[in-house]
Design brief:
Length: 361
């Protein structure tokens, strides 16, 4: 069995982390797994350190003919059995590259966007793709809606790096000079529209009324960073909210929080929630997408209706004032992550899909 992952992304997100975990697991099992990615991607450098085979393949658009030709060359040279794609762009590139080659195509869908029903997508999804992996059960309806049978769908949630987490609890407080007694609430992720950082700012203003010493952290970069910084300034949060950018020591950042908050409008299977759970940090998150498949509210964390800053404030306040209940939830959350969201679990289940695909004519 010889596997090749192709990925058009040049960022480090949950998608790239998932690919990295799978490739590392297969390497450990003695199965050939290579990556066709841009050398500018953080995934390239991380995979290089693990001696995972790499092929340089920058992809700019869905009909990138140079990318198609380059990928086809790799597929033939490396005698690939399964091509695993992750984004719409590399899905198209991959499906076109394998034409008339004995290569099966697997696509992981990481988001909840609906699939337009047209002739091109019908060919791509029904004829050119052999199996779909979904990062959350909630995504299934979008795929089945266009007629993909259940036999060609498998749900496998993303994993968390159990070797890296948890981190050191006091590092961020010391760095930002935040007193130990001051509540520290944070959010980690790309600063993009669907993460709904304006909601995080609204919640922060509400919490400060009852917890005037509280501090807030936004860890991440993204296209809306300057907009969110400007809004925080306008809302009078300059002295209370800390923008710390993208961090390599995210385990230390999350471990320093008293409460982790995720205000997203939509999510698949966010790794950052699992990271917080593994760090023993209580989670307050929007009740959207695949998040309820990770956290049972009141048991491993608290889920709130999306878009409601008051409900977020109340949930965070609960964790800040009920240490006994908080400790019970965080302990259950840790156990759940170790049991169901270990990188080896992701790798093992993905390998089972590959074996199934190769058995199917």
């Amino acid at each position: 069995m010889r596997i090749l992952h192709v990925n058009a992304g040049e960022v480090w997100s949950g998608i790239e982390q998932r690919i990295f975990f799978i490739a590392r697991y297969l390497k450990k099992k003695g199965i050939y797994c290579a990556l066709a990615v841009s050398p500018a991607s953080p995934l390239w450098s991380k995979a290089e350190k693990e001696s995972i085979p790499l092929h340089p393949l920058p992809i700019r658009k869905k009909l990138d003919f140079r990318g198609i030709a380059g990928l086809r060359t790799v597929l033939k040279k490396e005698k690939i059995d399964i091509l695993h794609t992750h984004r719409s762009t590399d899905h198209w590139i991959g499906a076109l590259a394998v034409q008339w080659l004995p290569v099966k195509v697997v696509r992981t869908r990481h988001n909840f966007t609906s699939i337009p029903e047209n002739l091109c997508n019908s060919i791509l999804y029904h004829t050119w793709t052999h199996h779909f992996i979904l990062v959350a059960e909630k995504i299934r309806e979008n795929v089945q809606k266009i007629g993909i049978p259940p036999s060609r769908i498998t749900v496998i949630h993303s994993a968390v790096d159990v070797e890296k987490f948890p981190g050191r609890k006091g590092v961020l407080r010391k760095e930002l000079n935040i007193p130990r007694e001051a509540p520290l609430i944070g959010m980690v992720g790309r600063i993009r529209e669907h993460k709904n950082y304006p909601l995080f700012l609204e919640f922060a203003c509400l919490l400060l009324r009852d917890f005037p010493t509280a501090h807030f952290v936004i860890a991440g970069e993204g296209p809306l960073e300057e907009v969110i910084r400007g809004r925080a300034e306008t809302m009078g949060l300059r002295e209370r909210i800390h923008f710390i950018g993208g961090r390599e020591d995210v385990e230390d950042v999350i471990s320093s929080f008293d409460v982790f908050v995720l205000t997203s409008k939509i999510e698949g299977s966010p790794a950052v929630i699992k990271e917080a759970m593994l760090c023993g940090v209580p989670v307050v998150a929007s009740d959207v997408g695949g998040i309820p498949e990770i956290i049972e509210t009141g048991k491993e964390g608290l889920l709130v209706e999306p878009g409601n800053p008051l409900r977020i404030k109340e949930a965070v306040e609960f964790f800040l004032t009920h240490s006994g209940e908080k400790n019970k939830m965080t302990e259950k959350a840790k156990r759940k992550i170790l049991r169901y969201f270990h990188p080896d679990t992701l790798g093992e289940k993905t390998l089972e899909v590959y074996e199934k695909v190769l058995r199917t004519e």
